[in-house]
Model the fold of this input.
Amino acid sequence: MKTKPVILIVDDQSQNIELLEAYLAPQGYEIIAASNGEEALEKLSGNQIDLMLLDIMMPGMDGFEVTRRVRQDDIHRLLPIILVTALHEKEDRVKGIEAGCDDFISKPVDKMELLARVRALLKVKAYSDLMNNYRKELESEVAIRTKELKQALDDLKQDITERKLTEKALRVSEEKYRMVVENAKEAIIVTQDMKVVFVNRAGVDMIGYSEKILTPKPFTDFIHPDDLNMVVDHHIRRLKGEEVQSVYSFRILSQDGKVKWVELNATVIKWKERPAILNFLKDITDRKLAEVELRQTLESLRKAFGTTIQVMISAVEMKDPYTAGHQLRSADLACAIAKEMGLAQEKIDGIRMAGSIHDIGKLSVPSEILSKPTQLTNAEFSVIKDHAQSGYEMLKNVESPWPLAQIVYQHHERMNGSGYPRNLKGDEILLDARIMAVADVVEAMASHRPYRPALGIDAALEEIKKNRGTFYDNAVADACLRLFREKGYKLLT
Done:
């Protein structure tokens, strides 16, 4: 028997899968991974999956197409799907919704946001599964009772007509359904011709009006004005048979004037032989308030983190006045390179943070070595080289949405494995660190050092061009050269 919720992670980048698994596995989730859309559909058909975390930009079948195919399968049409994406354009998100996704989360993934969204959708799925199972059990019970009534009809057909027995069977079924509906904890509302035609006890309690007042009124009277157009649009499209997001949230106005957040799960039914919408509503006001509080807390933490980084920058520059400004100039150039390469703003923000403290490990280097006005000896240079390892040790336990410690650790590695401290090669080096390496070299060569005068920007760019593909990543080197030679970029003064 399955004891853990199973999450299928689909991404063509193994490090993204490993990161998501690192966040989710300790929370008690079982993880299944797929590296492309075809593999994802294969694993979906062979396993009992509770939720899918799906990357959009993948070779072959992209995340939108995978979502559409999943929604075409009756077995998985209600499977919660979260698109994990670096895309921020409104059109891309609309495309995801139209494909049938339930939610989005942006790259780089925030751990707390990821866990909150996964828990919320798994709760919705658990509730949906419970309701589906309950409906099946109820339908089975109705079928049994109907069969019993039919047998009774055969026994009593000399005294009563078949029509009366059928009516009796229907009354029994209706009473059973009404008993279930009236005692449900979720609000159940049936709307037809834009009006409320049925509401259960939980719905009356949620909105605050009596059933007598509710049932003849248009349901639009109880929806917050800012959400009205969206809710009406979903309602009309669902009645037309168009594909509409099955679960979504909006605000309602209760009789006492309070605004409540509700989550809706709706489906088209027949009500008195005419099309209608069966709506299941759950009050999620407390959850929404908690989300707002969480966002405020995260913003406060972000500001505090920025202040800490600034203190670190000041500490390094006080230790090594000759390189004052080096970290910030390197960080600015690294961000410009990342932007030229088309990287997401969130990733650029992380590169700026790491660049601003990439030499923090120099705090462990004696001042007389850092400020020595002559060429360093081999022994002294070995001490200097330890700053990458020292910086990593200082930052490795710092909670951050970005891999700051690893960027600091790797910014002196080289593509051919000749760098330090671990002789990493090629893709073993984070892209962020490859960008930082080029920016660090250009700024260092172009600036004055205690043991030599500035070599100048031309010499620095010639170094990048000469060792492009050997020491430095091709794409990073090309972006750097374009900035200076075609777009007029200049180092900060």
